[in-house]
Amino acid sequence: MPTARQWIQLLGLEPHVEGGYFRRTFQADHRARVRTPGGERYTLTSIHYLLTHWSPIGHWHLNQSDILHFHHHGDPITYHLLFPDGRLETAVLGQDPGRGQLLMLAVPGGVWKASHLTAGDHGLISEAVSPGFDYTDMTLGRAEDLLRRFPGHEELIRRYCRPVEPG
Question: Where is the DUF985 domain (predicted)?
């Protein structure tokens, strides 16, 4: 059973701006790109994504594309989803459907999400993104902005927003 550090080395993962580690594994170079409001995008991209006991949080962020998350190895990862209407959903990705864990989670574009390693050493997932991921289509959550939009979820917003860098 590989450890978090072994997965980082084996898969060539790098730190991700939202937290955890990642590496792009696919982009649909063989297809024509699709037009989006943000510009042309691949029809599909995918990544490996790893949360670890020392980097256990995927901080609040919003993607314009739809994303499928697939749990592959390790410990469960809890997802918090804030929909535009203020509704909050929580789901756990993991390997034990008998305990309510999902092997796959679909998150529509336009939904804020944060995730955290529920317990243990690491959780390894992959994500399939359509239209393909582009950093210009991702917004990192800022506590003051999210609190204005979703005042009823202050505790979760504060817990999973990336800390503000001094200066």
Answer: 6-140
